[in-house]
């Protein structure tokens, strides 16, 4: 099976991929036929046509207001405090900074703005 995934490698993911490959390799023809029939019967997942493949685009759609990559030096205790909250710590830092900018400009405190701040 060719490598197509660009997800970060982790021991748990590697085990899951290995297990899936083994399951596919050991699948009987009857199991494969049952799985194929179930997939074809699923109205939420229609089979792709040649037109679908031609119109398909790779990757994510472009954001109206994409985030920018920056390098920033922060105090160690600030980073530790945000990281202690678990995954999403960088998004939480962004939210705090965005809130501070909106307050200083007297903008309403709402979700992510569609215009550049």
Number of domains: 2
Distance between the termini: 45 Å
The multimeric state of the shown protein is single chain
Low-confidence runs: 113-117
Structural class: mainly alpha
Averaged pLDDT: 84
Give the count of helical stretches: 5
Helix proportion? 40-55%
* Beta content: under 5%
How many distinct beta strands?
A: 0
Describe the largest sheet.
Answer: none
N-to-C SSE string, H for helix and E for strand: HHHHH
Overall radius of gyration: 23 Å
Overall form: elongated
Descriptive overview:
The chain is an all-alpha fold and 117 residues long. It has helices at 11-25, 29-41, 50-55, 76-83, 89-104. The protein has 2 domains: 11-55, no CATH class; 64-117, no CATH class. It has 5 helices and no strands. The model is unreliable at 113-117 (pLDDT under 50). The radius of gyration is 23 Å and the shape is elongated. 50% of the residues lie in helices and 0% in strands.
